[in-house]
Amino acid sequence: MSDISVLATGLRFPEGPVAMRDGSVALVEIERQTVTRVGADGALSVIAMPGGGPNGLAIGPDGAFYIANNGGFAWHTVNGMLRPVAQAPDYWGGRIERVDPATGKVSILYDRCHDERLYGPNDLVFDGQGGFYFTDLGKTRARDRDHGAIYYARADGSHIRRLAHPVLTPNGIGLSPDGRTLYFAETETARLWALDIEEPGVVRKAPFPSPHGGRLVIGLPGFQRFDSLALDAHGNICVATLISGAISVISPAGQLLRQVKMPDMFTTNICFGGPDLKTAYITLSGSGQLVSMTWPDPGLRLAHEA
């Protein structure tokens, strides 16, 4: 696509891009197990080395980076495309981590919810009240897989609670512009769900037959899979869509507005930056690239990225 600019290559399954004020982009390299900065000039530098499987990245209320760490994958390369295939041999659990951006020090904030382990945290989004919502996709093994879940936690480590369960492979997560709707994507079903927020960390659940209390926004036909997501300023949900290799733009009412095709079937994440928030940064993970393009609508400014 002629309107795509390649900002970095050689990345090891990049995800979780965060547009920084200085024009750089912070992201995770899941296979390399790092938090990496892509400078405005394309130069790469390592911010932190959390190990495991750093999967989602966000800036918290204290200016630190917060990581949804899935605990690690095993990897396989087919036709030059890197992809995760199973739970890592050295996997010991998933966790939410905090990274000091000045020193790169990594500390574990949560590795369980009360007596329940975290298995594969995938993505997270902060509200403006000192907390964040995150997905736990779980792990896949040869003959079984974990049930996933949606959680809410405080950034100071004081509180965590499970909001929805069981969810089949929950992945991307985001908040509506008014902060009253929580969206999450299911990878394997290519379904986008919503939970209505009554107060921070408290949601109103839909009744049966919803499997977990979410209300269905849309499900895409055919062989497509959902990854991470971001919202634009109008409240549309921009979902990175695997297999078809696209960003699917979905209205809050559940209409597929358009699909923006990308040159990688593992199109995994999108975030917005630039002075007008009309620059989209997109991770093409199979080919190890971070790209950018001008987006027709401004992105939604996140809680702690002002």
Enter the CATH topology name. Neuraminidase
Task: Please identify the top-level CATH class.
Answer: Mainly Beta
Task: Work out the number of β strands.
Answer: 29
The CATH architecture classification is: 6 Propeller
Q: Which descriptor suits the 3D outline? A: globular
The mean pLDDT is 97
Which percent range describes the beta-strand content?
Answer: over 45%
Number of domains: 1
Assign a percent range to the helix content. Answer: under 10%
Overall SS class: mainly beta
CATH homologous superfamily heading: TolB, C-terminal domain
The largest sheet is: 5 strands, antiparallel
- What's the SSE pattern? EEEEEEEEEEEEEEEEEEEEEEEEEEEEE
Question: Uncertain runs with pLDDT below 50, 5 residues or more?
Answer: none
Given the structure, what is the number of helices? 0
Oligomer: single chain
The N- and C-terminal alpha carbons lie at a distance of: 30 Å
Rg for CA atoms: 17 Å
Summarize the structure.
The chain is mainly β. It contains no helices and 29 strands.
Q: Would you give an account of this structure?
A:
Strands 18, 19, 20, 21 and 22 form a five-stranded antiparallel beta sheet that branches. The protein is mostly beta strands and 306 residues long. Helix content is 0%, strand content 53%. The mean pLDDT is 97. A hairpin with a 5-residue loop joins strand 16 (148-154) and strand 17 (160-167).
